[in-house]
Amino acid sequence: MTSSQEWVEIARDIAAKLAVDAVERDRAHETPYEEVRLLKDSGLVTLLGPAEHGGGGQTWETAYRVIREVARGDGSIGQLLGYHYLWAWAVRLVGTEAQIAAVEELYTKDKLFFGGAVNPRDSDLTITEDGDELVYSGHKSFSTGSKVSDLTVLEGVLEGTGDHIFAIVPSRQEDIVFHDDWDNIGQRLTESGSVTIKNVRVPWASAAGYVDRKFQPLTYNTLNVPAIQLVFTNFYLGIAQGALDTALAYTRDHTRAWPYGGDDKASAGEEWYILEGYGDLQAKLWAVEALVDRAGAEISEVLHAPREQLTPQRRGELAVLIAAAKQRASDTGLEVGTKIFELTGARASAAKYGLDRFWRNLRTHSLHDPVAYKRREVGAYALLGQLPEPTWYT
Prior knowledge:
Blueprint lengths: L3 H17 L1 H7 L4 H10 L17 H14 L1 H20 L2 H14 L3 E4 L7 E6 L2 E8 L10 E8 L5 E7 L5 E3 L16 E9 L6 E2 L2 E2 L8 H30 L18 H32 L8 H33 L11 H10 L5 H14 L10
Parallel strand pairs: 1-4, 2-4
Antiparallel strand pairs: 2-3, 3-7, 4-5, 6-7, 8-9
Helix pairs in contact: 1-3, 1-4, 4-5, 4-7, 4-8, 5-7, 7-8, 7-9, 7-10, 8-9, 9-10, 9-11
């Protein structure tokens, strides 16, 4: 049985391998089939899967740390792994006990990789009934994991009702068309382009959480948003940590002391402003890490508890804590991504070093939803005692 710390060490080893050619792979912008193969071969894909089917049997607390470590080597691959964990857990969030057992056995035994076509800012997919089948159709602007996924999570609204229905389908079918249109400045290897869903058929029996075509809601169903917001937070932190690691290594090997300040030093490692600058960034990242780890431990306890136990109050408290962690990781990460150039020096801006990729990666994904609203959620809780209402983003 592999321990939690051993899984983190496996993730650290994967990150080191990814970091070797991260700059070149970012430039090439090719579909990361080999990178996902690394995740599968290492066992990280089935970290949360049941041990009886060959999975790691680990908790979300470990999964969050693993996401962070992988992102330290490559932010795109950390994001892919984090989204995979969330979508693999989706059946636990809303499915029946029988559906949970079937999906977890399937993906764990075969080391299948998840993607999702569930962008709430687009119109919902339309679902129509055809006898004992549901038929999904529509278009989504973003589908992270698209071409590297084995399974895709769909979500839509049943025509003539307000009922949202999740379903898990094979990614490789002619009725799912992934478009090669992901061309953003950062997170370039996440395969987050658009997707067209054309009459994808799903048995009614596979409608997640539905029994006799009726859904019985639980507060637990709404944990998908806090859980994935903390996925974001962890790969933001991992990207920032990777930026600091890379900058420190560059300064040790290349940065020269400044000879015109009246306090000449023999090396950059003696230069007071460089030491002060790195000390400030490191302290801030340690502080963010402590907050993020606290959030990970608290939501992990809830995610692995009986689903019926979760109350709206506890759910809201977790959402606020994660909102606080996310804003800190985003703001501090962006500061690190900028400040490292002042500490490494002019030559570090050469394209061959790729130091800009950390800021680009974090800036790109941190726009997923406005961080100002996360600050507002925390403020409303602190000042007014208000908990955020569950939505697609809170």
